[in-house]
Amino acid sequence: MSRARRRLFARIAILIGLVIGGLYAALPVLWMLSSSFKQNTDIFASPPQLIPANPTLEAYTAIFTDPVKVRFFLNSYFVSLSVTVLTLLVAVLAAYSLSRYEFPFKRVLNMIIVSVQAVPPITLLIPYFGLIMFLGLYNSYPGLILTYMVFTLPYAIIMMTGYFNTLPRELDEAVKVDGGSSWTALWRILVPISVPGLVSVGIYTFMIAWNEYLFALTLTKTPDMRTVPIGIQLLMGQHSYEWNQMMSMSILGCIPILLLFLFFQRYFIGGMTAGAVKN
Question: How far apart, in Å, are the Cα atoms of 98 and each of 71, 169, 200, 240?
Fold first, then answer.
């Protein structure tokens, strides 16, 4: 067999493998989408039907006409966007200081930031619950936002510090020569050219806050404060499960993350790889 033919067979094998892997990964999503357009009793029909025989919007109507379920989405949007904005703001300021200035205990601070990433969040559940209760922030937006920021800030600071390290210091010096301050250099020069890094960190932060379940369950107690992951779990009743509503709420919950990746994909990839190589 010639070398060209072996290469052709290898490419075909790789292509077949990729198609099979793609179908395997997409099948649960397709089944979730299909089930969201079925009645609850049709989901367990035998044989299974990937394409609904009688598609219906019953599950979506039940969600959009229920103020409690709509509130789940509003809570998730508010908390996730708040965490994202505040995390980016604090991370940019902290990363700029770590990248551009020398100060006592800088290495110690860097080690602390990195070490926080190694702590499993579940081990902090009870201490955070006690702290939130002590501060009087239980079942409130500030309690969720501050808790989520503890988990998103270390990664955001590390990423933004690495990104700022790739930007030449001559930019800061040029601003100072023209009479500008460090504040001007940061917000007028560095931040605008750091959009890929900001987008990457922002998507990661939003995704963490949007999908978080354990702390949202522990730190809230009333339906008006619950988020989407908790709302999906609440559809599991004592005697019956609203499977079609669970699937439709899951589809609606995937849309924000999907749109973020679709619109900011090139920035996200560039931001993830920035800072990986030292110039």
Answer: 40, 13, 19, 54
